[in-house]
Design goal:
34% helix, 21% strand, 302 residues, 11 helices, single chain
């Protein structure tokens, strides 16, 4: 599939290991080449009242995974890996945490109100148990060597410290079949067993997995076209079969939002309109079956 955000003419392939199930872009851009796929627009959308409410809800949901550390009555120290513009560390600082962050992309802008590192996690100059918690929200799918991140998290965490991270679920229909992954920024694709293997090899005990949409959503977009193609037509579902999103359709045809353009989009892809009615039910069933496209893991240093 192509880079649907910035370079729609550049296509990439995802493969998976027959032995362990780990998925990855192959061939993948080098670390130096990846900078062009993270322009400033990736990080810095103009703030609106709606977006501010969204981020506050998201940060509140993320902070819930660290509540047990707040109950100890100290000022715990958090390292947020991939902190982007620093929203989550600031949220936690307001809750009484001491915070630090890591962000490798220059396009994310500079952070001056809390300590930060402009380096890959494994290269920061911390080599002793220092932090009460390390978080990585939708980060590990972006890095070239995720195992080094797991190892470094164990190295810098205090005994019984928490490593909390969110990744897409490669066992979900959304990730594996519906072309909704953010390729090539998403370089890695984790199954549940791969995550357990990484944690076991790097000295962590898995405490909890939440498979669901409480932080990020992975709506089963293209679910109905996929079912029609694979179940009724008995054909494989390729990227050529993926309909344009409504936003893409309006851009291609130079249309403004409105009921007329909505009718034109419905005529172009009725399945894309019909399937949205069923999204709440489909997502609820996926979460019940633990097959939703997003999982959050809480692991403790052994």
């Amino acid at each position: 599939m192509p880079d649907r955000l910035f370079f729609p003419d550049e296509f990439f392939s995802v493969v998976s290991c027959d032995e362990c199930g780990f998925g990855f872009v192959n061939p993948r851009p080098t670390p130096a080449e990846m900078a062009r796929y993270y322009p400033a627009a990736y990080f810095q959308a103009p703030p609106t009242a709606s977006s501010n409410r969204y981020f506050q809800r998201r940060y509140a949901a993320e902070s819930a995974y660290l509540r047990q550390l707040e109950k100890r009555g100290t000022n715990p120290l958090l390292l947020d890996v991939g902190c982007a513009t620093g929203g989550f560390p600031r949220f936690m600082a307001a809750r009484g945490w001491r915070v630090e962050g890591i962000e490798v992309s220059e396009a994310a802008g500079s952070i001056r109100d809390f300590p930060g590192y402009r380096a890959e996690f494994q290269n920061i100059p911390i080599h002793a148990p220092t932090y009460d918690a390390v978080t990585a929200w939708a980060v590990l799918e972006h890095v070239h060597d995720p195992m080094t991140y797991f190892r470094k998290a164990n190295e810098v965490l205090k005994p019984s410290g928490l490593f909390v991270f969110l990744v897409t679920n490669f066992e979900s229909i959304a990730s594996r079949h519906l072309f909704v992954e953010d390729v090539p920024r998403h370089l890695n694709f984790f199954t549940r067993s791969v995550v357990r293997r990484y944690l076991d090899l790097t000295g962590f005990t898995l405490l909890r997995e939440d498979n669901g949409r409480n932080i990020y959503k992975a709506a089963p977009v293209h679910w109905l076209p996929y079912q029609i193609q694979t179940r009724l037509r008995r054909r494989s579902f390729t990227y050529a079969d993926v309909p344009l999103t409504k936003r893409e359709f309006l851009q291609v045809h130079g249309l403004a939002r409105g009921w007329r353009s909505s009718l034109r989009y419905a005529a172009y892809s009725p399945a894309s309109v019909i399937e949205r009615v069923f999204f709440p039910l489909i997502e609820a069933l996926q979460i019940l079956r633990r097959s939703y496209g997003i999982s959050t893991y809480v692991a403790q240093k052994r």
